[in-house]
Write a structure and sequence with these properties.
Blueprint lengths: L1 H22 L5 H11 L1 H4 L22 H7 L20 H15 L15 H9 L1 H4 L20 H7 L19 H12 L15 H25 L5
Helix pairs in contact: 2-5, 4-5, 6-9, 8-9
Bound molecules: heme C (2 copies).
The site of one heme C has 21 residues, from helix 3 and helix 4.
Length: 240
């Protein structure tokens, strides 16, 4: 009898759990929040409310039934809301877009899923770059290997371009003076961060040249020797 009650209770739990998952739509809002921070925050702000007066930054997102189509295909004739879906040449899969919708839905519900926490110890320029630029230009300005997501050239005046944007392109003007969201101090921090990319990449130190590397090498040699001895002991014929 007790067993049967337990089984019934377990079944009820499973059904309830399933209902909770279904009620939340089929997207993962936490993954959606991470995608939003990377790709959308630059123009639409932390909760989709817009963040500047320039056209690129002034559209608030309403979560509605058309969300997936708009994000995948972009808004016809809009230079800034271009197609983000992979089937239209963008970087996001259909599942990513469902996750984004699940995230946007949490604004509507009044309990917004939190955006991923930025590393406070990081250089402020790096943090500003991550939320404003990396979605289109990739990490360290390397681009995202897709048409429309270009790398940032080494000898470009990043401050000047970021301030005013590039006319007739998807590169919006970020300076407050041009209706964008960033102060001169923010822009200078980003430009200073971009200058750190020009330094030659740190040399890869050969394993044995660093003290830890040498320790690791000795450990590996030791482990190898033990394995050889063990193997020998296992396979060796008993002498009689
Ligand atoms: C370069 C700036 C920019 C980026 C980045 C951007 N958008 Fe947009 N978005 C816009 C603009 C501008 C519009 C309004 C389109 C128009 O009328 O020109 C818009 C419109 C929209 C709309 C329709 C507005 C409505 O009525 O609800 C949705 C939804 C949307 N964006 C979602 C996203 C999502 C999700 C991302 C990230 C994957 C994203 N956007 C990235 C600029 C941007
Ligand atoms: C919505 C996508 C998008 C965002 C966000 C974005 N850019 Fe751009 N950016 C572009 C595109 C597209 C181009 C190329 C425009 C063209 O030349 O037609 C570009 C060009 C540039 C260039 C010139 C690159 C070169 O080598 O000539 C610089 C510098 C630049 N962006 C800096 C930034 C910085 C800094 C940020 C953040 C504050 C930023 N961009 C945010 C799309 C974007």
């Amino acid at each position: 009898m007790a067993k049967r009650a337990l089984i019934v209770a377990l079944l009820a739990l499973v059904v309830l759990g399933g209902a909770v998952v279904l009620a939340h739509g089929d997207g993962d809002p936490a993954h959606g929040a991470a995608l939003y921070a990377e790709n959308c925050l630059a123009c639409h702000g932390p909760t989709g409310e817009s963040r500047g007066t320039h056209k690129a930054f002034s559209t608030a997102i309403r979560y509605d039934t058309n969300f997936e189509a708009v994000v995948a295909q972009g808004v016809a004739g809009s230079r800034y809301m271009f197609a983000w879906g992979q089937e239209y040449g963008g970087p996001l899969s259909a599942e990513d877009i469902l996750d984004l919708r699940a995230y946007a839905q949490t604004w509507q519900e009044g309990t917004p899923e939190l955006l991923p926490v930025q590393d406070d110890s990081a250089d402020p320029g790096a943090r500003l770059y991550a939320t404003n630029c990396a979605g289109c230009h990739g990490s360290q300005g390397a681009g995202r290997s897709l048409p429309g997501f270009p790398p940032i050239g080494k000898y470009v005046d990043v401050l000047a371009v970021a301030r005013r944007g590039i006319p007739d392109s998807a590169m919006p003007p970020f300076a407050e003076a041009y209706g964008g969201p960033l102060s001169e101090a923010d822009l200078s921090a980003i430009a200073a961060y971009a200058r750190t990319w020009e330094q030659p990449a740190p040399m890869v130190v050969a394993a044995a040249n660093s003290p830890q590397g040498a320790g690791m090498l000795i450990l590996l040699i030791g482990l190898g020797a033990i394995a050889v001895v063990a193997l020998w002991a296992l396979t060796a014929q008993p002498i009689d």
